[in-house]
Amino acid sequence: MSSPPIDMREREELCDLLAELGPDAPTLCEGWTTSDLAAHLVLREHFKLGTDERMAAEKAKGLPALIDRLRDGAPLVPWRLPGLRTLMNGVEYLIHHEDVRRANGLGPRTDRPDLDALAWRMTGFLGRRAARQIRPYGLELRRPEGEPRRFGPAGGAVLQGEPTELLLYLSGRREAAEVRLAGDADAVAALRDANTGV
């Protein structure tokens, strides 16, 4: 029996964790509780802008109702189309699952090579974006195994860690990401000052 797609698995595990923690648990998203995060995910998947009014209306339905909507799955188009589902929804759920896990004392998951593969794929986009912000310096991403990725000139900032940790750092979850930052001091300072959050 084949395993479910990454986005479905991350969705189910996140829903389980939300149900376990309740509506008022913290997340890494500044100012957001678990209820806020669940409301955001419901609105995002149904193409509704997350205005304060809409967020409040969704949250008023209660966390159990939001979890039920999330468990029902995303609309077919585009979130369940092959190729898009993993890259777009898989990454979204991976990051937000970690937002809840890390804010509540749960550490990295080391038993998910498929998550690291997905995270490494996404670091291409986020690494390029971060490198543009720290020009004229370059950025190199290093994972424990495999070739590194370099954006811009050599000799800049070097960010090392497991792919999921690199993804968290590059998506603005810096304090929670288990990474090592080295390289040229000015490039490192520029990366620390860059707004890489998504």
Could you explain how this protein is built, in words?
The protein folds into two domains: 6-103, no CATH class; 113-193, Nonspecific Lipid-transfer Protein, Chain A. The longest helix is centred in the middle third of the chain and has 21 residues, at 113-133. The protein is globular, with a radius of gyration of 17 Å. Helices cover 53% and strands 8% of the residues. With 198 residues, the protein is an alpha+beta fold. It is built from eight helices and four strands. Strands 2-1-3-4 form a four-stranded mixed sheet.
Highlighted features:
198 residues; alpha+beta; Nonspecific Lipid-transfer Protein, Chain A; 2 domains; four-stranded mixed beta sheet; 8 helices; 4 strands; globular; DinB/YfiT-like; isomerase activity; Maleylpyruvate isomerase family mycothiol-dependent enzyme; isomerase
